[in-house]
Design a protein that fits this description.
Layout (H helix, E strand, L loop, with lengths): L5 H21 L14 H34 L19 H30 L6 E8 L2 E6 L4 E4 L1 E5 L4 E7 L4 E5 L3 E6 L5 E5 L5 E6 L12 E7 L1 H12 L10 H6 L31 E2 L4 E2 L2 H9 L1 H4 L33 H12 L3
Parallel strand pairs: 1-5, 4-10
Antiparallel strand pairs: 1-2, 2-3, 5-8, 6-7, 9-10, 11-12
Bound molecules: copper (II) ion (CU).
The site of copper (II) ion has 7 residues, from loops.
Length: 360
């Protein structure tokens, strides 16, 4: 009987395509949330353990599967001639069983040691860290930097060359803080504070994502960490802390009368205004994105967000169903905004966008 090599060729092709897809999905620097290009001490040491464990397991896989395939071919039925005796029939082999048990125990020890070293490294708080308190909320992030008494949202800057410790908690449900190239991940649990820390080494923009299912818009809960040189970081802090008088800006009256101040503030970004219902917008125009990473921070992004936040982020606390609006005017698009019964005309929306784009 002629043996067909088609299944083997097909298996190799599928495996090769799978590896190709994996590589281009996860293993290029162009993938923003890859873990394969770590840029902190924490991310790199975790990555090294990961690679070590996986190479070891790959070697075992090749050995075991190789032995299995060898046996399949060596003892297959087609090679037996009529009248050949059965191979020796055995039951149990003490040497092999003891050998496998010892080898498995050694393997567990080899995996255990670097994992424990990594856990110890991660759980030792570094001296002189820049502390950032991170509060997860449905569905955005509040950052508070005690050293500068500074509150911001969804996007935060850190310097290179200094350990950064993120202290993680939540005010509603469990979220998880994860910026793959900086290292992670760890849960934000209501009522307790956990931490992760790392020392950023390369300036750049690093995106992350809530990694614990937290409700209908969980997938729309991104965060961004901008790693700056120490000089750029100092400039960012100075910009965030710079005194301004947003209440004197021409469109502040529209912002106030639209009810925005019920949940947001634009007036102060120090520790006195933590845990508001919506993100602190004091210097919102300095951020690159809005709504926790789902829209660009420009006039178009801001306009479409204000006009219809529920379209972009279902069940977000901003907005109520249009049917509940009680104001005058068109039901749509005028009357689909903000949970206090206000209707926003296009003119008002334009004023709000103009106001917010000036907050820098
Ligand atoms: Cu989530």
């Amino acid at each position: 009987m002629k043996r067909s090599s088609a299944p083997l060729i097909m298996a190799i092709t599928v495996a090769a395509l799978g590896l190709y897809w994996l590589y281009y999905s996860f293993a290029t620097p162009y993938t923003p949330q890859t873990t394969f290009f770590p840029t902190t001490d924490f991310a790199r040491s975790t990555h090294e353990v990961y690679i070590f464990v996986n190479l070891l397991l790959l070697a075992i896989f090749v050995l075991v599967e190789g032995a299995l395939i060898w046996v399949l071919f060596r003892f297959r039925k087609e090679d037996a001639r009529p009248g050949d005796p059965l191979p020796e029939q055995v039951h149990g082999n003490t040497k092999i069983e003891v050998g496998l048990t010892v080898a498995t125990t050694l393997l567990v020890i080899v995996l255990f040691v670097p994992s424990c070293q990594q856990i110890q490294f991660m759980q030792t708080k570094p001296d002189d860290a820049l502390v950032i308190e991170v509060t997860g909320k449905q569905w955005w992030w509040e950052f508070y930097l005690p050293e500068h008494d500074l509150v911001t949202a969804n996007e935060v800057h850190v310097p290179t060359g200094r350990p950064v410790r993120f202290d993680l908690t939540s005010t509603d449900v469990i979220h998880a803080f994860w910026i793959p190239r900086l290292g992670g991940k760890r849960d934000n649990v209501p009522g307790r504070t956990q931490f992760i820390w790392m020392t950023p080494e390369e300036p750049g923009i690093y995106d992350g994502q809530c990694a614990e299912y937290c409700g209908s818009s969980h997938a729309l809960m991104s965060m961004r960490v901008v790693v700056d040189t120490p000089e750029d970081y100092a400039a960012w802090v100075a910009q965030q802390k710079a005194p301004s008088n947003p209440a004197a800006m021409s469109n502040f009256a529209s912002f106030a009368s639209a009810g925005c101040l019920t949940c947001h503030t634009t007036l102060v970004n120090d520790g006195t205004v933590r845990n508001m219902l919506g993100p602190n917008l004091t210097k919102v125009a300095t951020r690159t994105q809005i709504a926790a990473g789902i829209l660009p921070n420009d006039s178009d992004g801001m306009t479409t967000w204000i006009q219809n936040p529920q379209y972009h982020k279902p069940s977000a606390k901003m907005d109520i169903p249009a049917a509940q609006c009680t104001g005058e005017g068109e039901p749509d698009p005028c009357c689909r905004m903000i949970g206090i019964g206000n209707c926003l005309s296009e003119e008002t929306v334009a004023q709000l966008v103009s106001y917010l784009q000036d907050l820098k």
